[in-house]
Design goal:
This protein has 5 helices and 14 strands. With about 210 residues, it is α+β, with helices and mostly antiparallel strands.
Length: about 210
């Protein structure tokens, strides 16, 4: 998501899903809050520039025949004991599969959140919240075992394809990606098979 987020610590006895529902209901405008590393993140509405850039990347995946690329769905990651670890709405993603009946049952049981193991590749385009995408979300996506994380960091003027997630222990905040393919914005960003090489030149215009 884009824009500067509002961060709120979450009381451990509150189910993060219920907390985010309460936050949504309290806001006078439509929002989709997220939850990472024990914090509720409430980003304002994304800007047109942000959405245009994310849409450009979505289109490149579609043009390359990657039909399972998508945006807008929320995904839940869980700790080993079943507790909610993260609730995230990526800017775009490539799914492993279309939702099965089991996935839809999971979404119903978890009040609108699909299981994060549906995702094969996840992507974020930063705005003023670049610390969230480069820190907590970076670690959370790795902890969830998502094979590839595409990050367009407009703050640093770089694009990354992170791969090979590593979880060194039981603490998800220690997770990371072992491989970082990095280019300057404007240069092509190679992705692992079967994904296309992404043209990042459109971000030079924003």
């Amino acid at each position: 998501m884009s824009a500067e987020p509002i961060l709120e610590p979450v009381m451990t006895q509150v189910d993060p899903i219920d907390l985010l529902i309460a936050i949504e209901e309290a806001y006078p405008m439509p929002i989709r809050p997220e939850y990472v590393e024990g914090m509720a993140i409430v980003p304002p509405q994304p800007s047109d520039i942000h959405n245009d850039g994310a849409g450009e990347l979505f289109y490149q995946f579609r043009a390359a025949g990657i039909r399972l690329v998508g945006f807008g769905n929320g995904y839940r990651a869980a700790h080993k004991d079943g507790r909610t670890m993260a609730l995230i709405v990526p800017d775009f993603y490539v799914r492993r599969r279309r939702p099965t009946e089991l996935d839809e049952s999971y979404r119903k049981a978890h009040k609108g959140w699909y299981p994060i193991d549906m995702i094969a590749l996840v992507g974020e385009v930063t705005s003023t919240n670049h610390e969230t995408d480069t820190g907590p979300k970076f670690r959370t996506y790795a902890a969830a075992g998502i094979p590839a994380y595409v990050l367009v960091d407009r703050h640093s003027g770089t694009a990354h394809c992170y791969a090979d997630p590593v979880v060194p222990g039981d603490d998800p905040t220690e997770a990371y990606y072992a491989t970082d393919t990095k280019v300057d914005l404007g240069e092509p960003l190679p992705l692992p098979e079967p994904y296309p090489t992404l043209d990042t030149a459109p971000f030079l215009e924003s």
